[in-house]
Design brief:
This protein has 16 helices and 15 strands. By secondary structure, the chain is of the alpha/beta class. It has three domains: 19-99, Alpha-Beta Plaits, CATH 3.30.70; 109-184, Alpha-Beta Plaits (2-Layer Sandwich), CATH 3.30.70.260; 194-208 and 252-407, 3-Layer(aba) Sandwich (Rossmann fold), CATH 3.40.50.1000. A seven-stranded mixed sheet has the order 12-11-10-9-13-14-15, with helices on both faces. A four-stranded antiparallel sheet has the order 2-3-1-4, covered by helices on one side. A four-stranded antiparallel sheet has the order 6-7-5-8, with helices on one face. Helix 14 links the parallel strand 14 (366-370) and strand 15. The chain is elongated. The chain starts with 18 loop residues before the first strand and ends with a helix. GO terms for molecular function: L-phosphoserine phosphatase activity; magnesium ion binding. Pathway: Amino-acid biosynthesis; L-serine biosynthesis; L-serine from 3-phospho-D-glycerate: step 3/3. It is an enzyme of class 3 (hydrolase). Residues 22-103 form the ACT domain. InterPro entries: ACT-like_dom_sf, ACT_dom, HAD-like_SerB, HAD-like_sf, HAD_sf, PSP, PSP_ACT.
Length: 411
Amino acid sequence: MSTSRIPPVTVVPDDDDAPTLLVKIFGKDRPGITAGLCDTLAAYGVHIVDIEQVVTRGRIVLCVLVTAPTADGAEGDLRATVHSWAESMRLQAEIISGRGDNRPRGTGRSHVTMLGNPLTAESTAAIASRITGTGGNIDRIFRLAKYPVTAVEFEVSGAETEPLRTALAIEAADIGVDVAVVASGLQRRAQRLVVMDVDSTLIQDEVIELFAAHAGCEDEVAEVTARAMRGELDFEQSLHARVALLAGIDESVVEKVRAEVRLTPGARTLIRTLKRLGYQVGVVSGGFTQVTDDLKERLGLDFASANTLEVVDGKLTGRVVGEVVDRAGKARLLRRFAAEAGVPLVQTVAIGDGANDLDMLNAAGLGVAFNAKPVVREAAHTAVNVPFLDTVLYLLGVTREEVEAADAHVD
């Protein structure tokens, strides 16, 4: 039997009124600054209450909140010693007396992600001002990415997520930047399944238009699409009308269309990174399995569902077989895939661009409108309007640096 004992633990009371010192160090960064400061403070028996450090372009700002020493004259000695140490390191020091820890954060916490190419001081000022105008306070700001767009995240407290999202969406539209607002909390880190649309989301193309080009019926397909946009046809009616125009073309066209499909920039990076993080990833489409099944295999997706073009004797018949994947069908498939994966809906992410995706976007824990029409942007939880699909990672708190570090490592 082991005779080792767990050493006693001293619990420091959480006293909001106890004297504290905020020690701020700033200057040129070099190895050993944090260790040196903490070693200097250790001589006075203080406890660390909070600590934060940031390095920007080789300049460090290190803030350490400590309990104030209680012995007579100890605080003055600590101040003199810290300033002397900082001078020896060619750094500057500032020590501010106070009481307790940081002020309590307001209820209502959100992550506000701002994307710009470029990200201007003017637009940042506008968004920060609007946050303040909703009653929010910016507790922290940090950069998520500098490529292919500049992305920064604001941690905001004191404003409820939905009113904040509404206010910032209006401001973002006025100044021409992308702003996404996601509620803070464990659920943001718990998303484990991502479902996305295919046409104009995962890929840059509309698959029916690629088929129409080979069938020589682009104008006719475009006219049916226009009628659907005017509300004269619902999705299922327009699908059947457009597919009927493909009747008689050779099945070999499928391979040609597969070769013509262009992935959206960042699609591979998004999927690769999500898979590394343990997500299940799939697609649901109002397009065709002849293309989505190929994408599933090429990209290593976990699932794919779409409509199927009927082929008889090597020719397209102009009909689809099976249940049509429409607006309601996409939401139904999201629920089915989540149930099969054992993932609660609140832990799912859906990405899409069209009205056909709205039910799916609203059913997911996080619905992302990707380069979508205004009606879709307004209805979704959040929106991204830059042409890079991997920017969705920033909404999940993944930084570009983490993505590139993972890519540099051979799996």
